[in-house]
Write a structure and sequence with these properties.
This protein is of the alpha+beta class. It has helices spanning 11-22, 52-65, 68-74, 180-196, 203-220; strands at 2-5, 27-28, 41-42, 44-46, 76-87, 92-96, 101-102, 108-109, 112-117, 125-126, 129-133, 136-140, 147-151, 156-158, 161-163, 166-175. The strands form 4 sheets. The chain has a 7-stranded antiparallel sheet with strand order 1-13-9-16-5-4-2.
Length: 223
């Protein structure tokens, strides 16, 4: 499941994040790439252990926490990692799957990935986030303040930036629910429930949906 989250952060939050990272020295993205991805990864980043990331992380996690769609789709348990990535002309990240385990020294399983776009799409050329889909690709380039989340195990890439600068916050969370298919079922049930709320004739349907949702979560959750 690939889910877009329009206007995840407010204009003030976006402005603050951009001010926080404006004067930070970025490092080579290859530093956090495994040996197999060294040739595929060509970007710059502010790593998760940089002091500025404490405030950035707090802002983004607060925004995710108030986003019902993200909470429903991700069923987050805890943050695995978060960084700020930057792509300039000629930079790209080839097709890959993100690391399944993150964090030192306390390892965290990564289940759900998200990208929060910080620049407007018309300020840079290329840089789409593209997912392998059958025999082709599905690509996204969202407005600033919007985010996209997806299963960490899904093949994806960042297409080459041809002009301008692509700036984004990228993060990973461990979910209470390990299986992507079960998370999607829970999200569908939650959305169906929202559609029925307030309809007097739907009380029995809501009871059954709630029963299915809670028992499915009870069966698969790993607190």
């Amino acid at each position: 499941m690939i889910l877009t989250l329009p206007d995840l952060v407010t204009p003030d939050e976006l402005a603050l994040i951009k001010r926080l990272v404006a004067n930070v020295e970025f490092t080579e993205g290859k530093a956090t790439a495994g040996e197999l991805l060294h040739k595929a990864k060509n970007n710059q980043q502010i790593p998760c252990n940089h002091p500025v990331m404490t405030e950035v992380t707090g802002l983004v996690m607060k925004a995710l926490g108030r986003c019902d769609a993200f909470m429903s789709a991700a069923q987050p348990r805890r943050l695995a990692s978060m960084l700020v990535s930057r792509y300039r002309p000629g930079m790209a990240y080839g097709m890959h799957v993100d690391a399944p385990i993150m964090g030192e020294p306390n390892h965290v399983r990564s289940d759900v990935s998200f990208t929060l776009f910080l620049n407007e799409p018309d300020t840079y050329q290329g840089g789409e986030l593209a997912f392998e889909a059958g025999g082709g690709e599905t690509a996204f380039k969202l407005p600033a303040r919007s985010a996209i989340c997806y299963s960490t195990g899904q093949l994806h890439r960042v297409r080459p930036v041809e002009q301008g600068e692509r700036l984004a916050v990228v993060g990973w969370v461990q979910s209470l629910v390990r299986e992507p298919a079960v998370r999607e079922l829970l999200h569908d049930l939650s959305e169906a429930r929202e559609q029925l709320v307030g309809q007097e004739s739907a009380s029995r349907a809501l009871e059954l949906i709630n029963k299915s949702y809670f028992n499915l979560l009870r069966q698969h959750a790993e607190p």
